[in-house]
Write a structure and sequence with these properties.
The complex is a heterodimer of chains A (about 290) and B (about 325). Chain A is about 65% helix and about 0% strand. Chain A is an all-alpha fold. Chain A has one domain: MetI-like fold. Classes of the chains: A mainly alpha (about 290), B mainly alpha (about 325). Chain B: Keywords: Cell membrane, Membrane, Transmembrane, Transmembrane helix, Transport.
């Protein structure tokens, strides 16, 4: 009786992983967001290796010049080339936000998983501190910390990531707790996987989507907070160029050299728009109800 | 109702305590002698001793915290290092300036944003919706301090309609006071419009899908009544939560705007205190803003059932 069991061939075949999908035009917000983001990245990357002029070179003979062929976006109060400084500023802003968001995501995911995994008094203790940190509004915590650390690039990164970590912890822990009781997690336990394996293999990957959405908004927050702190003189200290401290320096020359205040603001707004649009596009994909 | 309020109040006590602990810790984290920090470099040995004793620095840290907390609860936040003013009246005075601007602008923003968001949700995916969402996203992406500078340039310098630098309080001259705060209010209103409109639209989309809206339509109510009487109230509840969060964030974020418009508000006071290493004033500002933030969010929780009857007190 070696006759193979009569099984319909299509049952043996694995189901096609995904029906081949026709390429669709990406939604407008993703398109514009990605374009702006690409522009920003090119500007920052180019600024690392090449700028039209030396961004720190003083030239008091060419102070406060309106945009010309030699200085495409004009010069500032020390005769420094505004375009070159904007390119360096793009690099600073992106670097600060990348470091801040990575730190907050890594620390927040770790603590969130820990709280959701161990539960009990670890969870309660962590969440008590977390909620108290969340009770500090916006950049207030960062302001308070900057008072202790003093203005510096890594000081901002530390202060902002400490301010943003609690929201990551909250999102990750919430996801973990809601997934713990789902059938597929139960199934993993039933077939004998350890708690830790189940956690890392089945629960943690499900936190990626919500954390990604949060991370996209956090990039925007970090850029805005960095420029606001630099604007207040509590961020990256001069002579290093950041969009925020360039805007602050333009304040006294608002009547005579208005372009000084115009271009850094355009850069900040462009960066924020890029991250907001990308965030929207991401959210639309994950929650299709909000869009078409 | 009363029980709910007292419960919520009791729940915010541990939060407030933890916040105070953190603010206390921030000052203790500053490297160096707190007494020296409090009195400044010019202090002589004797007054340093007195300050150390009054701060209880010879006591263990938990005891110090209790001493400090007792002083705070009795309204004694110490004196400014730079001007020797009592901290509490100083921060309350400056707080009024900021709070007025923030409240008026959030109110204006909500009055425009909530109907706009509802209309956009009602006509989802139409040209109107696209226009509202695009404008809101654009406004959301403009930093307040830059918008402030642009408005200052347009209306203060080019047109010369409004003063560029300075501040006059209401008690001195109401008309002049208005000319100084109109631009900050317009700036904040525009900036907050973005976030509130998007939130109002998102929650209205959720609500318009619900069965009770279908029911309201089925029983023959006009579209106008469905939208303004039924959808608006329920979709406003999540927006209210956002407005509460925004109020708190504005109070801490207003420092940049007060710098642009040279207003004597709490944000500017805090930044100046950081520059001058005036820790008692900084401590006072941190405490005041976070306490107000917690209380505003408590108030939002209490107002919630007015808009969403499913939430019971």
């Amino acid at each position: 009786m070696n006759k193979p069991l009569p099984v319909a061939p299509d049952v043996l075949l694995p189901a096609p992983a995904r029906a081949p999908r026709a390429w669709r035009v990406p939604p407008l917000n993703a398109l514009i967001g990605a374009t702006l983001l690409a522009l920003l990245l090119i500007m920052a990357a180019l600024g690392l290796v090449w700028t039209p002029r030396d961004p720190l070179a003083l030239n008091l003979l060419a102070r406060l010049q309106a945009p010309t062929a030699a200085h495409l976006l004009g010069t500032d109060e020390y005769g420094r080339d505004v375009l070159s400084r904007l390119m360096i500023g793009a690099h600073t802003s992106l670097w600060v936000s990348v470091l801040t968001v990575s730190l907050a995501i890594v620390a927040g995911t770790f603590l969130g998983l820990l709280a959701g995994f161990l539960r009990g008094w670890v969870d309660r203790g962590l969440m008590m501190i977390n909620d108290a940190l969340l009770a500090f509004p916006g950049i207030l915590l960062a302001l308070g910390l900057m008072a202790i650390i003093g203005p510096s690039l890594y000081g901002i990164v530390f202060a902002l990531s400490l301010a943003y970590t609690p929201s990551v912890v909250r999102v990750v822990r919430g996801t973990v707790l809601s997934l713990r009781e789902k059938e597929f997690v139960e199934a993993s336990r039933v077939i004998g996987n350890s708690e830790l394996y189940t956690m890392l293999r089945h629960i943690a990957p499900n936190c990626v989507a919500p954390v990604c959405v949060l991370a996209t908004s956090m990039f925007g927050w970090a850029i805005l907070a960095e420029s606001a702190l630099s604007f207040l003189g509590l961020g990256v200290p001069p002579p290093a160029a950041t969009w925020g401290n360039m805007l602050a320096a333009s304040r006294p020359y608002i009547a005579t050299a208005s372009w000084l205040g115009l271009f850094p603001g355009v850069c900040i707004a462009m960066a924020l728009l890029a991250f907001n649009l990308c965030g929207d596009a991401l959210r639309d994909r994950l929650d299709p109800r909000m869009s078409k | 109702m009363f029980r709910f309020i007292s419960q919520r109040l009791a729940m915010s006590i541990p939060t407030l305590l933890l916040i105070s602990l953190m603010v206390f810790a921030i000052i203790r984290l500053v490297p160096g002698d707190p007494a020296l920090l409090m009195l400044g470099d010019m202090a002589d040995a004797h007054s340093l001793e007195v300050a150390r004793a009054s701060l209880g620095l010879d006591q263990p840290l938990p005891v110090q915290f209790v001493i400090w907390l007792k002083a705070v609860l009795s309204g004694d936040l110490g004196h400014s290092i730079t001007t020797n003013e009592a901290v509490l009246p100083l921060i309350l005075d400056r707080f009024q300036v900021s709070a007025g601007i923030v409240l008026v602008s959030v109110l204006l923003a909500a009055l425009i944003a909530v109907p706009a968001g509802l209309l956009a949700a009602w006509k989802q995916d139409s040209a109107l919706d696209f226009g509202v969402v695009s404008t809101a996203t654009l406004l959301l992406s403009i930093p307040s301090f830059w918008l402030g500078l642009l408005l200052l340039y347009a209306f203060g310098i080019k047109l010369g309609w409004l003063p560029v630098v300075g501040y006059v309080s209401f008690s001195q001259s109401p008309w002049q006071a208005v000319t100084f705060i109109v631009l900050p209010i317009v700036t904040l209103t525009l900036v907050e419009l973005g976030a509130i409109t998007r939130m109002a639209r998102a929650s209205a989309i959720e609500v318009l899908r619900l069965e009770y809206i279908t029911h309201a339509r089925a029983k023959g109510l006009s579209e106008r009544a469905v939208l303004w009487r039924h959808a608006l109230r329920n979709s406003f509840a999540p927006t209210l939560t956002l407005i509460g969060l925004i109020l708190g964030n504005l109070l801490s974020g207003i420092a940049v705007l007060e710098t642009v418009f040279t207003l004597p508000g709490i944000g500017r006071l805090m930044v100046d205190a950081i520059y001058a290493r005036d820790y008692p004033v900084l401590q006072g500002c941190l405490l005041l803003v976070t306490f107000v933030y917690v209380l505003v969010n408590l108030l939002v929780d209490l107002l919630y059932p007015l808009f969403d009857p499913r939430v019971k007190l």
